[in-house]
Design a protein that fits this description.
The structure holds two protein chains of two kinds.
Chain A (H helix, E strand, L loop, with lengths): L6 H12 L1 H8 L1 H6 L13 H32 L12 H14 L2 H5 L6 H25 L7 H18 L5 H30 L3 H23 L19 E3 L3 E2 H19 L1 H11 L1 H6 L4 H28 L10 H11 L4 H24 L7 H15 L1 H8 L10 H8 L8
Antiparallel strand pairs in A: 1-2
Helix pairs in contact in A: 4-17, 4-18, 5-7, 5-16, 7-11, 7-14, 7-15, 7-16, 8-9, 8-10, 8-14, 8-15, 9-10, 9-14, 11-12, 11-14, 11-16, 12-14, 15-16, 15-17, 17-18
Chain B lengths: L4 H18 L2 H26 L7 H23 L1 H29 L4 H24 L18 H4 L4 H9 L3 H19 L1 H11 L1 H6 L4 H26 L12 H11 L4 H23 L4 H9 L2 H19 L20
Classes of the chains: A mainly alpha, B mainly alpha.
Amino acid sequence: MSGPVDPRASRESARAQAGGADQLAGTDPAAAATRDEKPTGSPRGAGAGNTLLRAWRAGAVPILSIVLALFIGAIIIILSPLTTGKPIQPDLPIRAYLALLEGAFGTPAHWADDARRFNAIGDTLVKAAPLMFGGLAVGLAFKAGLFNIGVAGQFLVGAFFAAVAGASFAQLDTNFAVPLALAIGGIAGAVYGFIPGFLKARTGAHEVVTTIMLNAIALQLLAWGLDLVKVAGFSFPRTGDIGNATLPILFGRNIHLGVLLAFLAIFIIRWLLDRTTLGFEIRTVGANPNAARYAGIRPVFIITLAMTLSGLLAGLAGSIQMLGVQTFYATGISNKVGFDSITVALLGRSSPLGIMLSALLFGVLRAGQNLMQLRTQNQVPIEVIDVIQALIILFLAADIIVRRVFRLKKAKGAIEGEVRNVTASWGEQVAR
Amino acid sequence: MDITAIPGLLVDLVRYLVEILFLSPSALEIIMLFTAPLALGALCGVMCERSGVVNIGIEGIMLTTAFAAYLTGFLLHDSIGTFPALVAGVVVAVLVGALLGVVHGWLTISVRADQIIAGVFLNVAAIGVTSYFNRIIITPTGRGGAGVLPDLNLIPAAIAEIPVIGPILAMVFNSNAIAMSVIFLAIILHVLLYRTRWGLRTRAVGEHPKAADTVGINVIRLRYLNVIVGCALAGLAGAYIVIGSNGAFQNEMSAGRGFIALAAVIFGRWTPLGALGGALLFGAASGIQTVISVARPEGQLGQVLGSIPTDFYAAFPYVLTIIILAGVVGRSIPPAADGIPYEKEARA
């Protein structure tokens, strides 16, 4: 991508530095109070050194969590042969990680070749795009004090309806077929996100359990739905060809429209959260539903809306995956996006830019994992990525480990205040 | 279908359910197969949450311990024989469960990490670690585990045929030892929680840890103890879902049952017997398809039940969980300190 030269992006980040203070005050009063800053609201970002220091304080724990997780992952890879009585190969993790990087970024030889230059990096971006949408879905819900574990289900529902819509509009002009199919997939995800949001807001049924149940229900009901819409001529049930509803390739071999939409979504949600009344209301409800109610915000409405928007984003993740990569829906389509999205949102501290960076990291892991398994003759299977992912979550949850290992003192904690409210709400009714 | 037939069908349905549940032993035995892991998971939830620790990692603990039990059987059944290998599998599963309890306790009690995120860690780690070692150790050999725990069959057919009592006795005593232990564990835990010093202290620690601390109860130690014992029970559930049912391990085979167990905890209002009741309800919802396929009702009811797609039956327990949560939660009040880490020096 052309990150630094994009004027839009640099303006965004400049504004973020200028307006950081009020943004924090609205998000989490407790966190803002503990910050060692003067309460006069003096303009921040006095010098480049300060900015870097602040960026390091915010990013240190996530970044070092990744480093530590990769290191522990390497130890697990080295020791694993012991379980089957094979000799230890000390260079195995290095070979594995190098193959992973090659799969995600390509080799110098690839870069010298015009035809293959962007193949690997394209894979990475295509893998990262649904994770950006999914990470935004989880992160937006976090901002409202909600934990959407239902991204997996909303993703599948979105993918299914996008596939069905795509097959119906296959003969339409691309300019109509693509937006229509995307919209229908997104709306389907939104409806599926509305259910747990409404139940939480109205009845207090905790979204952690209801969204997981909805994930399981989606699997079953979509298997049944697929039976209704399956097309003849294949040995297994699947939806029809999506024809003109296929997302156009913008760049290289495989960088489709969904990648661009994912980056757009990052900045739209950033704008929504930081620059709109709705965003302020969502953050206020997330920080303290009771205070929000006194301020005239209706938590019931905001909670339902936030969960619906979260479902919309997850549905779009499924839609771009379907219309850009998968092209037809069949049972057992791989779905790692659900849990990956949670890690992406935690790693990105629920902030859109953080989510963008962590989604790119997971894009690298997911794009490179197959070459890693291939090059190591199955000695380092792709499942090791799941182990590394779990370790990242561990170090984010218990940032004390990271602080001890790297002797950090001033870095921010990894889990934001909004996330803590998710656990607190386990034991209490939502303010009505 | 004719609308006027619906009242008659409902009457038939109730009659069928009464017959199948209380007059023949098979249905309750099938339901018990589905109930046992849910009930053990729910008891884990009760133990943890009663002392103030939210544990959404039950699902992951069940999956990890299921794999531990399976792996133990896989490694040992050639050398020490099938049955000893199965018993060793159960022991290892319980120990691994307790070990994961130490991990969850350390994260939530000592480090005071976010309790939901700690649970997410257990769940994600379970999927990663089990599929990783399944791929590395078991898949290349092409061999399987030690098989299935034998059924006890303590109740002879003559007694099992007695209406109402017979099927219930058969449900408790005719399946394997883990399933039998579930009922007794729930009763024992209920008595312990409401009739002993440990129970009083546990409830105090879950409701008002500061007050409990003031009167000399070691909050940290009691929370650790309860989380570890609770997670050991979840380990028993894990052993059950592999060597108590079909004997084979599949990746992600816990299939959301750890979360249904959490719903059973809420349904049972954080009491052990209530949680058992909730687990029975969800167990019945999970087993209903098998029950109907074994003893298909006659006439129009049979046709209607048979015409419902199997996917709907499979989704039914999850739908029921949501309905129960939405309907019951408002009237079900969790322990006051549930989910809040205890800090000795914190201002109240």
